[in-house]
Amino acid sequence: MPLTGLAREPIDGDGVRLRPYREGDVGDVAAACADPLTQRFLSLLPHPYTAADARWWITEGSTAVWATGGAAYAVADPATDRLIGAVGLDRVNRPRASGEIGYWVAPWARGRGVATAATRALTDAAFAAGLARVELLTEWENTPSQRVALAAGYRREGVRRSAGAGRTGRHDLIAWVRLADAPAEPAPRLLPDLPGGRLDDGVVALRPLRPDDADFLFALLSVPDVVATSVPPVPPQRAGIEERCRQAEARWLAGERADLVISDAASGEPAGDIGLYYHEPPTGLAMIGYSMLPAWRGRGYPARAARLLTEWAFEVGVARMTAGTLPDNLGSQRVLQKAGFRREGYQRGRLPGVDGTRHDDVLFARLPGDGDTG
Fold it and tell me: Per its UniProt record, what InterPro entries does this chain match (predicted)?
């Protein structure tokens, strides 16, 4: 299909209308772009953002986008015509028939599916105008935007190293892509959200790891016997733990891993962590690992947690769950047996140690048809 470019005309979507900006939008653009969340993830916006900045965007900035073959739309409520967001297409590469989409939603319209509807509408219009590929870039921590990408049919393609620039320097961005011949339905997820946001057996509860868990996780993974059974067996770095907590939801959305906190179901107090690593989706093969604070050991929590997480994983498509322990870690081996895992083998030199050494690993596995043994 020849690339014709987008017409500067309104586009109707599901509960939204994409239209050119108007002078009457100045107040709403200024308020939305001064919002702390908008400023956080669109860090190249002027700060503070004023009515003068909004007026410049409406009269000059958005016009320049159109002049270069892109599109810059206000997203309006069809019932009132009030601005509730923005969506645009830029970096249009005519030889490659590709472009990049971006959006923001005003604080007074969040939680209504505005970004998803606007993204779908503009993406469809871009394909109708001849584009073959539309890309969407998100910050690692901007998981609401990543959910929009998935809901609008975009698929995670990889990480663009140092592709973002902001007030604090350069940073990586996650690339999401939708192709013209791809379905518009929400992209499938290997690891969906937990039902109700947690797993709970009345004694133990599992919830996703959050950015504010950094203190707890650093303390847990710094316990000497936890360090000794880590891969590799070295003490954690605080910066690495903070990054892991910040990126946990994004990695879950990508289907790479599900990091969870093991907590007491009654009090909610964190007691340990457990992770599911979906390292071989084509064959349905995943593995788990876990650790517990010393004060919470001896109560059967890790076996309950392993059972809860494994059974949920089987429900969402994992076909085989594995786990490994050091040969002398008899406590962890008993945990796995109580959670329904069976010992399958002995893997020589599988795990890295310190100073270039290697350690053997005892392999356990559970299949959907295996019952609990404890």
Answer: Acyl_CoA_acyltransferase (IPR016181), GNAT_dom (IPR000182), Ribosomal_N-acetyltransferase (IPR051908)
Which residue range(s) make up the domain with 334? Answer: 195-366
pLDDT number for residue 2: 57
| Under 8 Å between Cβ of 261 and 211 | no
Q: What is the pLDDT of residue 3?
A: 62
E runs forming strands in the chain: 11-12, 17-19, 71-76, 83-93, 98-105, 133-138, 155-166, 169-179, 199-200, 204-208, 257-264, 270-280, 285-292, 320-325, 342-352, 358-366
Burial 122-151 (b: 16+ CB within 10 A, else e): bbbbbbebebebbbbbbbbbbbebbbbbbb
Residue spans of the chain under pLDDT 70: 1-4, 372-374
Q: Is residue 265 part of a domain?
A: yes
Nearest residue to 248 via CA among 191, 332, 301, 320: 191
Distance (Å, rounded) from C-alpha 176 to C-alpha 133? 11
68 and 126 both lie in a single domain: yes
| pLDDT attached to residue 4 | 66
- The predicted model scores a pTM of 0.92
pLDDT score at 320: 98
Q: What is the pLDDT of residue 184?
A: 85
Query: So what's the pLDDT on residue 119?
Result: 98
pLDDT of residue 180: 97
Whether residues 201 and 299 share a domain: the answer is yes
- Contact present, 94 and 108 (Cβ < 8 Å): no
In a 3-state reduction of DSSP, which class is residue 275? strand
pLDDT of residue 167: 80
**Helix, strand, coil proportions of the chain in percent (round to 5)?**
35, 30, 35
Contact 18, 75 (CB under 8 A): yes
146 and 281 assigned to the same domain: no
Residue type, 274: I
Beta bridge partners of 75: 18, 85
- Around 20, how many Cα atoms within 13 Å sit in the side-chain half-sphere? 15
